[in-house]
Known about the structure:
Number of domains: 1
Largest sheet: 5 strands, mixed
Strand content: 35-45%
Structural class: mainly beta
Number of strands: 10
Distance between the termini: 43 Å
Number of helices: 3
CATH superfamily: CheA-289, Domain 4
Amino acid sequence: MDEGQRQCLTFWLLDTMFALPITVVQEVLQDVRITPIPKTPDFLEGVMNLRGRIVPVVDLKKKFAMAHTPHTEDTAVVVVCIPFENRELLAGIRVDGVESVRSFAETALCPPPQMGVPVPLDFLEAILLEEDQVLLFLNIARIFTRSELRDVRRAEKGKDGGEADDPS
């Protein structure tokens, strides 16, 4: 890849296209069985079995307070690495559909506007205007608070997310 290029996975939530750096994406899965976990935040859909590893799954539409829509054949789980406390948490993020892996020129990216986007500005790294649409570049490290990442870590370890059995 040329210097000055950013390679990203693009995906849809409702009618909005998002991008994540390919460096944080592990894989994309279709038709995933999710097991709900009691006493976890609303956006934490549950956990999945990824080749013997418990991986929490986050519903990004709930996290972004977007409208709920039923799952379709295009619904997917993007497995990502989230930096947290000097290590990486593996998590799945539920999306409405995966578009493609694409490269973008760094010079084409713009800072996010101060309003008019469907997610909190802190979650965005950049935007790109493309023909008749706007592409929103997410910063996976900014999407979750420390407390939420602790909940994700507890789910990854198989705990119920309750405070009573977490000594930290």
